[in-house]
Prior knowledge:
Elements: E1 3-5, E2 12-14, E3 16-19, H1 30-42, E4 47-49, H2 60-72, E5 81-86, H3 101-115, E6 120-125, H4 134-146, E7 150-156, H5 160-172, E8 177-183, H6 190-194, H7 196-201, E9 205-209, H8 245-260, H9 265-274, E10 279-284, H10 289-296, H11 306-316
Parallel strand pairs: 3-4, 3-10, 4-5, 5-6, 6-7, 7-8, 8-9, 9-10
Antiparallel strand pairs: 1-2
Helix pairs in contact: 1-2, 3-4, 4-5, 8-11
Amino acid sequence: MIYNYCGHSGVQLPVLSLGLWHNFGSVDDFSVATQMVVRAFDAGICHFDLANNYGPEPGSAEENFGKILKNSLAGHRDELFISSKAGHDMWPGVYGTGSSRKNLIASCDQSLKRTGLEYFDIFYSHRYDGVTPIEETMQALIDLVRQGKALYVGISKYPPALQQQCYDILKEAHVPCLLSQYRCSMFDPKAKNNNFQIAADNGSGIICFSPLAQGLLTGKYGNGIPEGSRAARSTGFLQESQVTPARVEAVKQLAVIAKERGQSIAQMALAWVLADKRVTSCIIGTSCVAQLENNLTTLHNLTFSEDEMKRIDNIINQKDLWFLS
């Protein structure tokens, strides 16, 4: 495994981190989830990314991860870097969502209980809710550190206009923002273009999620929408309407370059995200150990020639391919 320092801190993270957004909930196979977490740890992936609402059911990914820790990784707590977040819809009622102090403090307490942990290595504000003053949200994060419930704090998906304010408040309190988490892929350059440099200028590490554009950059949609795939479901983060002919064709063109590099399109897509030196780590999501192994093989070739980057840019620099919302 390769490790990078987070911004201006002394904390190192693996360049590939394991996310538990999908496939670790109460509806999923617990034995497969256990196999993936243990194999990831054995491969040097020491960072596991959670949120209070991951499941389904919401909260069940944290519960399952806590069980895996107790059953399979007992005694390894100090070798792990575990995150959680709060801010999206979690429980019914006016306090079960948003960026308020009320929600963040209660959510962190609940998440610690579900995982069986005494503290999180990092706790994030999962989003800006458009209402809560930034000062209130950041003070809640600061107090979680001072209460010993988190070692570090981070922000996720905050718009560039508010990033600097977050960093300034946290820095003044001597609780700097360790990580800024953003969605990034070949089809999703918004954060790369708008958020990354602000984070880097303020000494925050950058960690990316959805590097494969919810599966579009795996090549699985080259001949239509497979049964059981994310785009085949009526609900979810990849809709059938987003699997456009232009995106399918772009993936096919990218796959040609990947093959020349001795990689799958998914491996090249991960390497492309990590090629940005501002990026600390990339969060991968897996549904089985074989998929995890495939992602790990990315580490065998992380460098691009100038010609390769130029060819890739010529393919992806088309706004009709981009996810802009």
